[in-house]
What we know:
It is found in: Cytoplasm, Cytoskeleton, Flagellum axoneme; Cytoplasm, Cytoskeleton, Flagellum basal body. This protein is mainly α and 159 residues long. It contains one helix and no strands.
Amino acid sequence: NKLKREEAFARLNTAKINEQWRFILRQVKCKELYDDLDYLWRNFDRTLALKNQIIKKLYNELEKADNDHRRLQEAHMEIIDKLIVQHRERLLTAHCNYMINVKYVEIDEINEMNRVKGEIMANCKHLETVIYAQGIYNEEMLTETRTRNAVNAFSVEHS
């Protein structure tokens, strides 16, 4: 019976020792966790501050890049506008030159047409004159021929 009691006390003592050992281990573990948590909390604040600085730097760089992009875009639009204006001016100049050339061609063609028309009119007058002269000549020749024929007929009749 004493042996059983000793065994019961031994089990009880072993359980108490195990419980105290676990309590000590828990305390050590809690201390380690507290220290780790404190270290992590301090590092978290520092890491958070570093990340905030990085975010601020990136934000500033983004603003600079956005401003640069806007300036470049405005400069690009101004250049394109200048090119469009220059192109319009060139087109307008080319159109004006074309219209002037068309007017010169029209004037030259009208002058040429009037000159040719004048030549044709002069040639027509000349031809009318020639035809009239030819008609008179033919009439004279016809009259002369009739007269000769009449003289010849008269001479033949009276001979």
